[in-house]
UniProtKB/TrEMBL annotation:
Residues 3-62 form the Bacteriophage SP-beta YorD domain. This is Bacteriophage SP-beta YorD domain-containing protein. It comes from the Bacteria. Transmembrane segments: none annotated. SUPFAM superfamilies: XkdW-like. InterPro entries: Phage_SP-beta_YorD (IPR019094), XkdW-like_sf (IPR035950).
């Protein structure tokens, strides 16, 4: 039991070291209230709590099994959601070898990358004979992509993102449904595998 927290639970306006002092003499008897000067709102002395009152306060401060279960379920839900988001934003290694560089590149897929690729794809679709200037994540500057190269790459990127959205959230629902129905904290032992 944390005596200071129990006292502050019972008397929320009390201030340690001003209104009371807890001391431990290291004699094996544990901490105790060494000084008590707690007053009520009218300035009257408040009786010092008994050990039983402190213990009861401490126990009532502890989270219930339902609180622990709800917290564990929320944590697992966040863990699965983060795993799905990490897959979506991990990037895409293209297999398309660009004519301008003679190699394939890695393309970012975070939200800004998705917005940039979408805007570039719209531009490319409206200018099918033009070179598309776009910066893959593994380059320092924008490089030339033919229209066909960029369409092939952006289609693959968006297909991958959509696959993770579809598969990832199906996986999320598959994992979360059992987590939401378990009846103990110990039952939430779900391992996250790649969707």
């Amino acid at each position: 039991m944390d005596i200071v927290k129990a006292i502050q639970y019972l008397h929320p306006n009390s201030v340690p070291l001003r209104d009371f002092m807890v001391q431990d003499d290291s004699d094996g008897n544990g901490p105790y209230i060494a000084q008590w000067n707690v007053k009520d709102a009218d300035g009257n002395d408040v009786p010092q709590p008994t050990d039983e009152e402190l213990q009861a306060a401490w126990e009532s401060m502890q989270p219930s099994e339902a609180d622990l279960l709800a917290a564990a379920q929320a944590a697992k839900k966040a863990e699965v959601s983060a795993a799905v988001a990490a897959k979506i934003t991990a990037g895409y290694r293209s297999t398309v070898v660009l004519a301008s560089t003679g190699k394939a590149h890695f393309y970012g897929t975070d939200l800004v990358d998705q917005q940039n690729m979408t805007a570039s794809r719209v531009w490319a679709d409206n200018h099918p004979t033009e070179i598309v200037k776009y910066r893959p994540q593994d380059e320092l500057a924008r490089i030339d992509h033919t229209h066909d190269e960029f369409v092939q790459i952006s289609t693959a990127v968006f297909d991958r993102i959509n696959w993770y959205l579809d598969q990832g959230y199906a996986y999320y629902r598959q994992i979360y449904a059992p987590v939401a129905t378990v009846d103990s904290v110990n039952a939430i032992q779900v391992v996250i595998n790649d969707p």
